[in-house]
Amino acid sequence: MRPPDGQVYRFDPGALCLELLATGGPGDFARFETLHEPSDLVAWAGGSRLGPCLELAVTEAELASVRRLRDALFLFTADQAHGRPRDPRHLAAINAAAAEPPLVARIAPDGTRAWAPGGTGAGLLSTVARDAVDLFTGPYAPRVRECASLNCFLLFVDTSRPGRRRWCAMERCGNRAKARTHRATRTAPKGQAAPKS
Ligand SMILES: [Zn+2]
Predict the structure, then answer these.
(1) Which one, of 44, 32, 39, lies nearest residue 60 by Cα?
(2) Are 88 and 76 in contact (CB under 8 A)?
(3) In angstroms, what is the span from residue 24 Cα to ligand 1's centroid?
(4) Is residue 155 classed as helix, strand or coil in its secondary structure?
(5) How far does residue 152's CA lie from ligand 1's centre (Å)?
(6) Alpha-carbon dihedral angle through residues 72, 197, 164, 9, given to the nearest 10 degrees
């Protein structure tokens, strides 16, 4: 992540579909948009957990579809993280995308995962939507959370064994919260607890 107000840091949201949410979003989040051109989506896919070996051809129309799915998925995920009811429009958007043919995975001669040639933006759209179906119907669905920092809206799934992940990244929001708690403890009068960070 490259925040305007700080150092570059690594954010792993724990699932492919949640990786897409960090590329922008609906409403106010449009100012964080990183998918302006089809090549931006190709670059995102190459840096995602799909891996750098994915060959992808993306059209403008496919890019627009991916952005629409992302915005629906963003709102859907935020609702899930906060225990709000599911919006049927978001469900419909995810399910429609998942119904299309996905990217075709295969095993490379060296045993690693590779992708069949001819990958398209439409295939990528479906693969991301299917990942969302798996995530939100799977065992980690209750572990989808928003970063606990007050002004950070990054969404992630906590796949750690203890299940106590609170921050987008310890090196960003986690450390800031620790520093705040530390300051509050030092300045708080005796017997008064530090405020929740
Ligand atoms: Zn955060």
Answers:
(1) 39
(2) no
(3) 15
(4) strand
(5) 5
(6) 60
Distance from the alpha carbon of residue 32 to the mean position of ligand 1, in angstroms: 15
Burial zone of 32 (CB within 10 Å; 0-12 exposed, 13-18 middle, 19+ buried): middle
DSSP of 95-111, one letter per residue? HHHHTS----EEE-TTS
Separation between Cα atoms, residue 151 and residue 48, nearest integer Å: 25
- pLDDT tens, 125-165? 999 999 999 999 999 999 999 999 988 999 999 999 999 99
Provide the token pair at 107: 């095993």
Name residue 144's beta-bridge partners: 157
Nearest to 65 by CA among 97, 89, 39, 29: 97
As a whole number of angstroms, the distance between CA 13 and CA 167 comes to 10
- Tell me the fold of 16-163: Jann2411-like fold (1.10.3300)
pTM value > 0.90? no
List, in order, residues 6 or more apart from 48 with CB less than 8 Å away. Answer: 16, 19, 20
Residue extents of the structural domains in the chain: 16-163
Ligand 1 centroid to residue 4 C-alpha, Å: 14
What's the 107 CA to ligand 1 centre distance in angstroms? 36
Q: Which residues keep their CB under 5 angstroms from ion ligand 1?
A: 147, 149, 152, 154, 168, 173
